Amino acid sequence: MNAIVRNTSRTSMINKFAELEKERIEWESNEQKAAHERLYQIIARTYKLYDGATLADIKAVAAKGKIKVTKATTGALLAAKLVFGNEDTKRNSAISKVLKAAKAQKLTAEEVPDWIKKNGGIERIRLNKQRAKNISKAQNGRSIARSETAVKYTISAEMNFEIPLDDEGFSVLLCRKNPERGHDVFYALNDKSAELGSNCHQTLCH
To answer: Which helix H or strand E contains 133, and what residues bound it?
Structure first.
């Protein structure tokens, strides 16, 4: 008897989940889609104002709207705050990145909604922008490493050492594996990392 009740209960649960799934699909296809399209239109109009104004103009308007303005605040972020409010900092940050990306591509306001959709939405554009920024940092690091041709010192493979850290706990070295002897260091980010070189010369480094 309990097994029959349990099976009936599970069948009912399966049906309820199926009904909710159907409602979710309808919502995504209709209400959510319409909401996204409306949001992209609002962002496009925000972009038009942002693209057509100077930073000084936007800061002046933001100040009158009691929005905190600092030297580091971008016009894109202020434009996002003016339209979407101060409360949701994550959303404002994402929208500001969309505005800046659209401006970097020299889009018109009319092109923005379709561009957002084709690029996977606001969050995808934000992530792509961050990924491009990270790649740029990596490329910059490689450029520095390639430009430093003179080996400052070599950390011997046999040496058991502790790399000195700076006050924030960082120790960044640009180095390349030496096939014959440990690692050749070309560049040290901070003084304490550089101190390792003098210590190496006095001990087992070459």
So the answer is: helix 122-147
